[in-house]
Amino acid sequence: MSIEAGDSISFWITSTDKAGNEVSGLGSESIPRAPALRIMEFIGEYVRSVSSPSAPLMNEIVTIETFWENTGKRDGTLVVGLYELIYEVDENGQSSERWKESLTTAQTPNLEIPLEAEATSVRVTFRWEATSPGQPNLYLVTDIDGDGSIGESDFYAADIAIGGISVVPPPPEDEGSSDSAIMMIGAIAVIAVAAIGFLISRRGSEDDVYYDDDDYEYYEEEDEY
Hints:
- There is one protein chain.
- The longest helix is centred in the last third of the chain and has 52 residues, at 173-224.
- By secondary structure, the protein is of the alpha+beta class.
- It has helices at 103-107, 152-156, 173-224, and strands at residues 44-52, 61-70, 76-89, 95-101, 111-115, 122-129, 138-142, 160-162.
- The protein folds into three domains: 1-39, no CATH class; 44-162, Immunoglobulin-like, CATH 2.60.40; 172-225.
- Strands 3, 4, 5, 7 and 8 form a five-stranded antiparallel beta sheet that branches. It has a three-stranded antiparallel beta sheet with strand order 1-2-6.
């Protein structure tokens, strides 16, 4: 028998005495009893995640904080792993896919998350390395079949996607070399301008001294005359 929220249970007694009279009143078939029903169930669920940084560079480690809750009335445990779904194409043009473990899942393949009854905002941290540019296909895979480990059937049912991450591609090599060349040309230009300015200032100083000497000799000649 499967019981869900909103269901109720009723029971009654059916009997007759020696005279053939049936049971009547509260607890009889006409007025059954309806006791309080409390469903004791474990309902562990994923809530949300926060990734830092959200725009990582190539080979940078990303920290993914995940939050879980248990809205049920019974304690329980979830088995979870963070995986990246990678699509590959072989030399014959045949495409395939494989699940790559995150750094945390590689260390702890079947990570257990204990959740108490009615627990909220239980935080679990995963670490993942950005190896390809663009948006990765990251999934939280949980133990759906309840065997205590993550297997093929669990990967097939994986539907908890981790979004909001975009890996920044490395800059092109040509762009880096052109930037270096531009910086070098700019430095040479600055040095050349400084040298020209220095020469002009020296030439101006020498000319001033020359004219001062002439003026001095001119005034001496006038005095002698």
